[in-house]
Amino acid sequence: MLYEHQGQSPKLHPSAVVAPSAVISGDVELGERVQVLHGAVITAEGGPVRIGAGTVVMENAVIRGVSGNAAVIGDHCLVGPHAYVSGATVEPEVFLATGSRVFNGAVVGRGSEVRIDAVVHLKTELAEGTTVPIGWVAVGTPALIAPPNEHEAIWERQRELDFPEYVFGLDRDTPDLMVQLTDRYGARLARHADDREV
């Protein structure tokens, strides 16, 4: 399904193939021979989405462009089932495995692998050819790549990246942080009320 969102309609190269149950919404461009499989969602939520030639977006993957951060996926990438990319740049020939997550402002260098359930955190940059092992977390620049049981080391790097401020413009110490965050985010997402199928 293709949707116009905030006056922008998806642009698909004639050779791109989108499964009938996938959703493509807003300022999204799919390059030559892009394949989008069932259940995938590619949506411009305040920032554009650009997907390069020969890339495959598998079942139930989510790719979101967000305010302040476009989602850019390079040529010949594989975005695995249930992978999640929000406002990040994924350079050409990258493998994002099943359940991997790449967050706002991150850059995944050419030829890298983000393996099953691995995370590339906010504003993290991976050098060309980097591997993030199964279930591990990459955080910061230069990236600390650590297993999830090293929570304290990850949190030290993660804290300075300041997710609430960077993504939502809110101070982490705001007394009613989650109330303000959900109200602000809900208002942004309510813009879908006027979407229309194209």
TrEMBL record:
<protein>
    <submittedName>
        <fullName>Gamma carbonic anhydrase family protein</fullName>
    </submittedName>
</protein>
<dbReference type="InterPro" id="IPR050484">
    <property type="entry name" value="Transf_Hexapept/Carb_Anhydrase"/>
</dbReference>
<dbReference type="InterPro" id="IPR011004">
    <property type="entry name" value="Trimer_LpxA-like_sf"/>
</dbReference>
